[in-house]
Amino acid sequence: MEAPLLHLALVGTPNSGKTSLFNALTGSRQKVANYPGVTVERKEGFFVTPLGRQVSVVDLPGTYSLRGRSPDEEITRDFVLGKASGEATPDLVLCVADSTNLRLTIRLLLELKRTGRPMILVLNMFDIASRRGISVDVERLAKELGVPVVTSIAVRKGGTADLLNLTDEISAKLAAEPQENTWRALSVAELRATQREADRIITDCVSLPSRPDTWTARIDAVVLHPVGGLVVLAAILFVMFQAVFAWAQPLMELLNSGFDALGEFVHATLPAGLLQSFLQNGVISGVGSVIVFLPQIIIIFLFILLLEDFGYMARAAFLMDRIMGGAGLHGRAFIPLLSSFACAIPGIMATRVIDNKRDRLTTILIAPLMTCSARIPVYTLIISAFIPAKDVWGFINLQGLVMFGLYATGIVSALAVSFLIKFFMLRDYAPAPFMLELPDYKMPRLKSIAIGVTTRAKMFLHRAGTTIFSMMVLIWFLASFPQPPAGATEPAIDFSLAAIIGKAIEPLLAPVGFNWQIAVALIPGMAAREVAVAALGTVYAIEGGKEAAEQIGQVLATKWSLATALSMLAWYIFAPQCASTLAVIRRETGSWVWMATTFGYMLVLAYAASLVTYNVAVALGAG
Amino acid sequence: MTDTHDTRPHLPLGLAQRGYTGVIQHLSAKDTGSALSDIELESRLIELGFVEGARVEVLHEGLVGRDPIAVRVDNITIAVRRREAMAIIVA
Ligand SMILES: Nc1nc2c(ncn2[C@@H]2O[C@H](COP(=O)(O)OP(=O)(O)O)[C@@H](O)[C@H]2O)c(=O)[nH]1
Ligand SMILES: [Mg+2]
After folding, report:
1. What are the Cα distances from residue B67, in Å, to A280, A431, B77, B79?
2. What CA–CA distances, in Å, run from A22 to A7, A43, A68, A164, A545?
3. Residues A586-616: b if buried by 16+ CB within 10 A, e if exposed
4. Quick count: other Cβ atoms within 10 Å of Cβ A570?
5. Which residues constitute the domain of residue B79?
6. Residue A224's closest chain B neighbor by CA?
7. Rounded to 5 degrees, what angle do the CA atoms A528, A532, A538 make?
8. Considering the domain boundaries, does residue A434 fall inside one?
9. Which of A99, A155, A215, A335 has most ligand 1 atoms within 8 Å of CB, for mutation?
10. How high is the pLDDT of residue A39?
11. Of A122, A281, A398, A479, which has the fewest Cβ atoms less than 10 A away?
């Protein structure tokens, strides 16, 4: 008979290596979903032990205690206590410790013990501890704690072998000893006593000739320097945006010509008609024009994941805390806001690390102003069509500079909005505290970065295959039907539903310099920002025929004035063009009001920005 | 270096300069002006390792108002704002 699935849960302080351990155990057998009701990411993975036991393991949010100060920490507490709705109580809790820093984890473990759950203490990062001359009397520690202890090196091949064997050993005799849950929230006195007890045990079992990590000290001397640190931060962000624009270019061109060739092939093989038009203009050029941006999305996530794995993100929060505080933001908001450069959805979800409700709300409201990767296709298209690719001051690419300017505008306006919120809506409140561990720097690990980037790339492609694909079908349909009457001389699209809708909206958008083709493209752009590019491609392709499909950029350069192009860029900085973001805001704030507020203020900003941009540009002769 | 920690004047960590080293004497979460309640502030400080007897060193300061500070607490580094660090009495 097959033994039932064994449920493991990974618990530990932030940065103890839970995710690395999770990756080491499960490889790519992972499932990312949300806990019901809340949008805390739930990462579950599967593996088989050496003795063949099927195991499911959950990577829980990092925590210092079971008090549950934030939605993230509540999940961890409820999960361990078996109170999380729809979740099996874990059969075995793996308490993951950073071996170089045992004090906080041992105290957490003493608290966890009161839940009565069977548990293993995993002394992770044992390689680093050994290198620093820390030695642990594992047997004695296990005896003092009354919990099995095992060492592990999550990032080394075979570094979890002992843990796997111990899991087998323990799971064999699990059912025998059901224990009572006596946990309740610790009082200050109990907390202090627990820490004393933990410190006593550590003194007894661990010898600490601990040389501090000199590398971390040396890097921090520069990176946390009050002025130098900010220069480094600015430089990192600048390189990141240059990379997104410059490094991705060759790959994107390759993908582009690939899709062109495919379209050509379809054009040549199929007889002229609806099917040919659907495949070439709707599917290939539509979905293709979005997939082309995969390299840029990979690069931006690569940077974010590298910085996170390296340990820099907490430093960035430290540097930015007071500066963002001036705009009414919490230092911890820096990480969610930086993630929002990839996508506002994970960014908004990441605001759960901010435990104060008001700070969190402000961050959620401004996160969509950070330039997400879905805007990149729109920006890239317009920039490459209208901004010359020359160098300024000898080394900076002008297109990259404009891109940087767009990002900067997004950031500055986010800070301004936050300042206004603080000033007008949430005046009477003291700033929430900022307390954050600054972990030692670690060499980023290829494997975990690869897993992270692949997951994101898959999500993007999945979107391209579903949301974007269906939007493209819709656009193609609207742009193709009804068909023109026989003998008509105008382009076919002038008779279509798209033209009718677009022309109906056009008067509203005329003051900002948008034509009806843009109006049509903006509607499906609500489903996903990047669809606007594909939609423009489809509209102009059906209007202009085959040549137009090949180079949307060139077509735009002939059809739009520079003023319209700039106005479109300004629009995209602000426009609330993303239904999924709005849905996440609604879910995270639990309120339609905040969703409507976000939509409204962003729309007003977008219209105003485009209006000003367009009219200034026209006045300067770019009309 | 005859200066023992008993004879040194007590001061809140929130007032310490960069480079200061000392030992935590006690926590006093009252009247720090923190947005947290006294109990909550004290709990969080303990959870991050700020307990009596821990050695602390102020490693770094932020740009604006020399705030926040990065504090070495035994062998980890914690970033806190000076306002909350006022609750940590060191000598
Ligand atoms: N040398 C070494 N580094 C590790 C080990 N486990 C994790 N790391 C690194 O520690 C950092 C934090 O790990 P992560 O898994 O993200 O921690 P989490 O916050 O607990 O999920 C990452 O840079 C990892 O590469 C280990 O056993 N040895
Ligand atoms: Mg993690």
Report:
1. 58, 13, 15, 10
2. 13, 9, 22, 12, 52
3. bbbbeeeebbebbbebbeebbbebbbebbbe
4. 26
5. 3-90
6. B60
7. 125
8. no
9. A155
10. 46
11. A398
Across the interface, whether the CB atoms of B48 and A103 are under 8 A apart is answered no
| A235 plus A116 within the same structural domain | no
Q: Are residues A207 and A273 in the same domain?
A: no
Q: Are residues A378 and A520 in the same domain?
A: no
The reply to whether residue A227 touches residue B63, judged by beta carbons under 8 angstroms, is yes
Q: Is residue A220 part of a domain?
A: no
Beta carbons of A430 and B81 less than 8 Å apart: no
Q: Is residue A151 part of a domain?
A: yes
Cis peptide, bond prior to residue B68, ω within 30 of zero: yes
Among the bound ligands, the one closest to the CA of A20: 1
pLDDT tens digits along A155-166 = 998 999 999 999
State the CATH number of the domain containing residue A28. Answer: 3.40.50.300
User: Which residues line ligand 1 at a C-beta cut-off of 6 Å?
Assistant: A 12, 14-20, 62, 124-125, 127-128, 153-155, 309, 442, 445, 448
Do A106 and A21 sit in the same domain of this protein? yes
Judgement on whether residues A16 and A149 belong to the same structural domain of the protein: yes
Q: What is the CATH number of the domain that holds B10?
A: 2.30.30.90
Please name the residue of chain B whose CA is at the shortest distance from the CA of residue A227.
B63
Chain A hits for B72, Cβ within 8 Å: 212
Structural domain range at position A244 = 228-428+449-458
DSSP line for A232-267: HHHHHHHHHHHHHHHTTHHHHHHHHHHHHHHHHHHH
Asked if B63 lies within 8 A of A107 by C-beta distance, the reply is no
Q: Does B83 touch chain A (CB under 8 A)?
A: yes
* Min Cα–Cα distance to chain B from A465, Å: 44
Q: In this structure, are A207 and A253 located in the same domain?
A: no
A442 in a domain, yes or no? no
Number of domains in chain A: 3
Look at residue A520 in the predicted model and tell me its pLDDT. Answer: 81
Instruction: Look at A199 and B51 and tell me if their CB atoms are within 8 Å.
Output: yes
Q: Whose CA is nearest to atom 3 of ligand 1?
A: A125
**In the listed set A146, A177, A212, which residue is the last one of a domain according to the structure?**
A212
pLDDT digits (tens, 9 = 90+) for A405-460: 998 899 899 989 998 887 776 655 666 778 889 999 999 988 888 888 887 788 77
Residues A189 and A268 in one domain: no
The answer, as to whether pTM is greater than 0.90, is no
